[in-house]
Amino acid sequence: xxxxxxxxxLGLHRSRHxxxxxxxxxxxxxxxxxxxxxxxxxxxxxxxxxxxxxxxPRLTVSTKVGYFPGPERAEHSLEPVRLYEAVEQAAxxxxxxxxxxxxxxxxxxxxxxxxxxREALAQGCAALDDAASKGLCGAWGLSSWDPxxxxxxxxxxTPRPSVLMTRAGLLVGVRTLDAVxxxxxxxxxxxxxxxxxxxxGGSMADPVWDRVDPxxxxxxxxxxxxxxxxxxxxxxxxxxxxxxxxxxDPAHLAELLDxxxxxxxxxxxxxxxxxxxxxxxxxxx
Length: 285
Prior knowledge:
By secondary structure, the protein is of the alpha/beta class. The protein has helices at residues 19-27, 39-42, 44-52, 80-94, 115-133, 174-187, 208-211, 226-233, 250-258, 266-278, and strands spanning 8-11, 32-34, 60-65, 67-68, 75-76, 100-104, 140-144, 163-167, 194-197, 218-219, 242-246, 263-264. The chain has a single domain (8-278), classed as NADP-dependent oxidoreductase domain (TIM Barrel, Alpha-Beta Barrel), CATH 3.20.20. The chain is 36% helix and 16% strand. The longest helix has 19 residues, at 115-133.
């Protein structure tokens, strides 16, 4: 067994939730998993309890609330009572209190900036803060796919999350990177309290990885694969202390863990952010 890898969390967004994946992750030293109430068709928590319930005490479990089943499709809500009850339900379905609960993509309910949006965000955060204070979860955080709409809604009265999670990696645009930096500053978060997700921007099968060699962003990157380079560089765009990454293959997870031995080239990362800023769209090529 390898030593623990606290900087890597196994994400279950597209996972089949198979037992062999969780046992394989534990064998590799990965002891944290990240899921959500709406994953696996709103069945993630109950499936985990059924298939790996005996392993859950050995794992640090984070989950998310904010999406709810609707008559035709999932709906999003920041209504405090619904969020609080969702945390309660998550604990019941998992058979244990989650270690961390994220407010999931609050921007989906915040179409407008200003007073109403600021109040809705604050109330949603307060609901999770209340749930954590009452022992329904170990701590709470905020997970946002597009944090830009949140920047103008955070003020000194907004409850402070323990963790901020957002997209990370070479395919993240400068608008998102700047928004993350602004939220980190507004909440006074340390880098260890910031998580990244979706480091591959969807898939390594994206044609962009045939045009760009991501090993450019590593010092002495010749000994690593392109996949490993993309993963390692994601810790720097934005600066995060933990990455949540999804896979159904323990061998792929092992390859990513080996990438932690690589050293990112800070100068190249800085130049890359500068180039993004110069592009009219602010987006990668």
